[in-house]
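Table S2 (text version). Query chain:
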Amino acid sequence: MAKSSFGTGAFKSLSDEIIALAEHLGKQVVALDTRMGYPSSGTIWEEGYVVTADHVVVRDEGITVTLANGSEKSAELVGRDPSTDVALLKVDTEKTGAPESLDAASLRPGTLGVALSRNSEKSLNASLAVVNAIGGEWHTDSGGTVENYLRVDVPMYAGFSGGPLFDAGGLFIGMSTSRLSRQSAVALPAVTLKRVVAELKERGHVRHGYLGIASIPIAISEALRAKSGRQEASGLMILQIETESAGEKGGLLPGDILVGLGDHPVGGPDELQASLGPESVGKTVSARLIRGGGSIELPVTVAERPQARGGDWRGRWSHHHHHRRESGE
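Corresponding structure-token output:
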């Protein structure tokens, strides 16, 4: 049989490089037994720790991790942050260094990479991925902050959430997740993972500021701006205030329009979330309000958002209800 004349060009070289890259980097990819009948993946973050997607860790105990060499290890849940979809496990891993990461600022749309995971048989899966959109700071619907928004063209086969995404040079781009966006796969950049993992190691969760208010975004009319002396075109009207919350203790009232908190303007829920990051907890900041047509400022000491069972912090103080958004900040 005659030998094919194909298989000697750039396309074959690309295929060989992807195979070699996947086999080499696959040593850092583990399979998780956390969801009955559904495969999940994770990445050895450093010796003794595995990072994965929070939404795939459906139980806090009885977690098993299968390493690349086939050995099974019991894992302990160190902590989780549903708002960024990150969970950290403590595992007796193989001796491997942390993945060398790529600064998201150096990425460009069109960057080629490879997304890795392990399937239900614990074998390695690899898929060519394209970073097709790179944005700035992103505030998720669950109240988390992601330093750089990375949208990725990659088929999200079962098990890919929690797995790593590497560039063509083998540098770690981020962690794949299908939970944070309904439109496409998203990769959480290395800078976000480093920050979240550090907090999970320290306290088991990521702190978020909390005012205990339910609010709705509104436009501020020119007449009200003129009357109050404020220039903001939008703000959050407070609908409810939780008893004994930071908002109540600070003197906020239903009907107030919140237009700023500390150094942050507040024109909507995203801006309020941005003002209530981990660094805000315990700090006394100035709440800028329109009340009764006038402008006032009140000192408010930001509390820490309560941690609810099952990793869901939102409860009744933060949910979507038709066109109205009630924020639990």
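Notes on Table S2: The longest strand covers residues 124-134. The chain has a mean pLDDT of 85.
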